[in-house]
Amino acid sequence: MNNYVVGLGEALWDCLPEGRKIGGAPANFAFHAGQFGFNTIAISAIGKDELGDEIIEKFQENNLRHHLERVDFPTGTVQVKLDDKGIPQYDICEGVAWDNIPWTDEIALIARKTRAVCFGSLAQRNTVSRETIKRFLATMPRITADIGSSASSMETLRIFDINLRQHFYNREIIEESLRQCNILKINDEELELIAEMYGLKAISSEDQCWVLLSKWNLKMLILTCGTDGSYVYSPGQVSFVPTPMVEVADTVGAGDSFTGSFVASILKGRTIREAHETAVKVSAFVCTQNGAMPILPEELKN
């Protein structure tokens, strides 16, 4: 119970063409990491409204442990439209509950017992949640206390799933997050934006990843490129795994399932390559399902 895996940030409803589905990258991450047997917690804030009640009900249905503060703002919603390729386009409402996650004694207690946390840029668009995320990262132990393991193997994981959405980010938020994380998850479109921000457009995407890995002293950099495969960069090595061809229902939550299953595999002691292969298989399966939180087949979890 002292080694939590936490998804910290937005909890909301994705309003898809076929109806509302539970959403938010941190909750999706926690759900999928939890399917691999970890004690996961989704931390966010919801409104004192029916949509907030329904989020709690849905998390309970999915056996997702959660710590959701009830605040005086409406529960978050996102209008999601899918393009011809099933790629989601988002219209994210502002001034909502997850913009206002308060720092509490309960959240501080969780932070002190956290083995891995995943956070993004979106939940930092407002000062209240941004400060809570910063305090959570600062409160986490840097090394867990398991006796008999090397310090490097027991280093806590702080995953920045950059998740750039609309205009809800800036250089200050990104740089502070890069200073605090030790794993960066980014997709090819986001890499282009970051490369432009840091004057790296003249070099290849591979070299851009090596520069970011070195500049921010990261343990790993995960680059996903849609149907063109994915890469995991770590000091001295790189893993590439092609994307399987599947019949896509929608891609909502696929990236979060990749992150959750990758981190779970690393925490189980798998190599980067093994964790990478598992993450690719899991995210490909999620693409064949509707919604972000499908139950994984046992062969994927094993």
Q: What is the average of the pLDDT values?
A: 91
List segments where confidence is low: pLDDT < 50 over at least 5 consecutive residues.
147-152
Q: How many distinct domains?
A: 1
CATH topology: UDP-N-acetylmuramoyl-L-alanine:D-glutamate ligase
CATH hierarchy class name: Alpha Beta
Helix coverage percent of residues? 25-40%
Instruction: Estimate the global geometry from the Cα principal axes.
Output: globular
> What does the largest sheet look like?
9 strands, mixed
> Cα distance, first to last residue?
22 Å
Query: How would you write the strand order of the largest sheet?
Result: 5-4-1-8-9-10-11-12-13
Give structural notes.
Strands 5-4-1-8-9-10-11-12-13 form a nine-stranded mixed β-sheet, with helices on both faces. Strands 3-2-6-7 form a four-stranded mixed β-sheet. It has one domain: 3-Layer(aba) Sandwich (UDP-N-acetylmuramoyl-L-alanine:D-glutamate ligase), CATH 3.40.1190. It is 36% helix and 24% strand. It contains ten helices and 13 strands. With 302 residues, it is an alpha/beta fold. The protein has helices spanning 25-34, 50-61, 105-112, 127-139, 171-180, 188-197, 205-215, 254-267, 272-287, 298-301, and strands at residues 4-8, 12-16, 19-23, 40-47, 66-71, 76-82, 88-92, 114-119, 157-161, 183-187, 220-224, 230-234, 237-241. It starts with a strand and ends with a helix.
